[in-house]
Amino acid sequence: MDAVMDWLSDWAAGVNWFEFVSIPFFTGIIGWLINWSGLWMLFSPVKFYGFKVPGLREIATVIPRKLQEVPGIPDGGIGWQGIVPARAAKMGSIAVDKVIAKLGTPAEFYAQLEPEEIAAHIVRVFEPDLPQMVDEILSREHPRMWRDLPAPLKQGVINRVQAQLPNVVTTITDEIGVHINQLLDPKIMVIDHFRKNPALVVRVFRDVGQRELNLMVAFGFIFGFLLGIPVAIVDQTWHLAWLLPIMGVIVGWTTNALGMWLIFEPPEPRRILGIKVQGLFLRRQAECAEVYAGIIADDVITLERIGDFLMDGPRGDRTRHMIATAMKPAIDKAAGPLRGAARVVVGAEKFDNIRESFAREAVGRTITPFRDPEFSRRQSAKIRVLIARRTKELPPRDFVEMMRSAIKEDEWMLYAHGAIMGAAGGFIHLGFFTWGWIPGFPPG
């Protein structure tokens, strides 16, 4: 025991206590800067900023795979784009695979939107335009007959078409519901929307996990300070200048790794030394689920976007054909008992052209109410309830993957950034306290 005390006394006598005390504070500040700048790297800038290098795109295919993941390099650019917006499409894919696909099928989403209410809304929007559409089609397809037809008979045709409209529209919305799993692909829809709107992916992270991200920055100082204590002991024991930058690498890497662990690990509650431990993000699963559901329902899986996908997506031709097929009987029913005579008067081919024209022009008008922003907002509340309920029910491990999986393969960039900043901090400390960078302060 006396030998140990003598060693400690000799060690303390050789310590530069000002330099010793400065190291934990220095590493604490560096830790804070590492996590603060790491968050900037995650989210900013939303678009790539840099410059193209001739030939880099070809070289990028043969360099180590990790370097190929650096934003800009696969496209032959040197610069930076936030990791999250750069991986927007990947985030969309994982959001579907890990979360949205488990929340329900397209048919379940469609059922939540209440097809009966959609049909009623389509009729309300379509009905006032129907007389003009009938007039335009018949004036174009058979101008002489339609011009010579007495006004009461014209109105009778229009009235019969209008009378058929509710039944026809209901048939259409029912047909969409029956075939929605073939017509709507949530994965393609979500990936395409995230790819086109990388700022939305940033918003998902920030709105859902901003509290945890702020804590990560704050804990950067705490972790850096605590890790600086053994660094100070090592530095003042061996007095080797090259040790500080090397220890800085370890501190920087570890600070970022601990910050990520603090937020996401462990997904399930555990007891370590009698203390309940769980990732900070997981502790607010219910609250975060509400925020996430609001973003998805208001900006991603909306009635407007469903309508756009149904009409203009990769399966839009099938949707248009299905609607047109459902609309054609409206003309037959409008003609009623005069259908046979009408075919004789205008000719079978002309009559069929009228049916085709009516069906074709009605397609766009039928789906237009899907794109009504106000109606879409009202319907999105139902989607929000479904997503929030299912997200709250997700196992914690699946819930955390919703946020982390898209960036997990790129976390090494954050750790490498921390290591570089840690090494830089070690050199700066040496410059201040060993190499005499501080005016009036003698080198150690």
Automatic annotation (TrEMBL):
Spans through the membrane: 20-43, 213-234, 240-264, 412-438
Keywords attached to this entry: Membrane, Transmembrane, Transmembrane helix
The keyword NAD is assigned to this record: no
This protein's name: DUF445 family protein
Taxonomic path: Bacteria, Bacillati, Actinomycetota, Actinomycetes, Propionibacteriales
